[in-house]
Amino acid sequence: MRQWPFLTVGLLTRFAMQIDIITIFPDYFREAFDYGIIRRARVAGLVNIQPHDLRAWTSDKHHVVDDRPFGGGDGMVLKPEPIFAAVESLTGARRREAIAPTKRVALLSPQGKRLTQSLAAEFAKCEQLVLICGRYEGVDERVADALVTDEVSIGDYVLSGGEPAALVVVDAVVRLIPGALGSETSAATESFSDGLLDCPHYTRPPDFEGMKVPEVLLTGNHAEIAKWRQQAAEEKTKRNRPDLLKE
Ligand code: 9D3
């Protein structure tokens, strides 16, 4: 039978997904993938996650990855050469058109399209996902123009670099790899798949400092419980995320 990196999940035989992260802070990721679902997926051989130091692809004595912006301004910009070299060595291609359709190369940047559940699901189908973390004031625009398949932001707030965003992308993607979630949970039944937030959950005790669990949940009446959960999810969505109900 075929050995690693092939694996069989259910009836499917597929490659372990390869995730490469290009960063100037590889140590940032040191324990990040050692917990929970991501750890399980790695141990099961579903995914191989590798942070890489961008400085490895510099050719000057001081391993310089940044430079001053043309046209002036504060701060530094990540140079294109090491990033193009890194992507070439990891994917075999140094232009977007040459990247295999089974691969995605994403630049994490505040100017990107927003990460959504459906983009995460697209990434989860790839054999290789390369994540490029920006730093400083930005990344030379030729990377976004000519190299990457996707420019991705995780939301409208300012981070100091792409590394925390890369963690978010990895987490959202890995749990969607077939076999990564236990069979008890299906990614399809989760929040956002039906456009509503999840319903509220409770466990023991039924009365905590006077705050009571909704009576219906204690009855064992599954039809009534399902009705309550649907309505509670709708109310919570209306209150916290009215934007999900528009259109
Ligand atoms: C102070 C610099 N900013 C001027 C308005 C520009 C800027 C450059 C680089 C702001 C943030 C960053 C670093 N952020 C990311 O690399 C990043 C990010 C983010 O800041 N928010 C949401 N998603 C992402 S993905 C990468």
Describe this structure in words.
With 247 residues, this protein is α/β, with parallel strands linked by helices. Helix 3 (117-124) packs across helix 5 (163-174). The termini are far apart. Helix content is 26%, strand content 22%. It is elongated. The longest helix has 19 residues, at 222-240.
User: C-alpha Rg, in Å?
Assistant: 22 Å
Through-space gap between termini: 51 Å
Topology as a string of helices (H) and strands (E): EEEHEEEHEHEEHEHEEH
Share in β-strands: 15-25%
The major sheet is characterized as:
5 strands, parallel
In short:
This protein has 6 helices and 12 strands.
Topology:
Blueprint: E1 6-9, E2 12-15, E3 17-23, H1 36-43, E4 47-53, E5 66-67, E6 77-78, H2 80-91, E7 103-114, H3 117-124, E8 128-133, E9 138-139, H4 141-146, E10 150-153, H5 163-174, E11 207-208, E12 211-212, H6 222-240
Parallel strand pairs: 3-4, 3-8, 6-9, 7-8, 7-10
Antiparallel strand pairs: 1-2, 5-6, 11-12
Bound molecules: ligand 9D3.
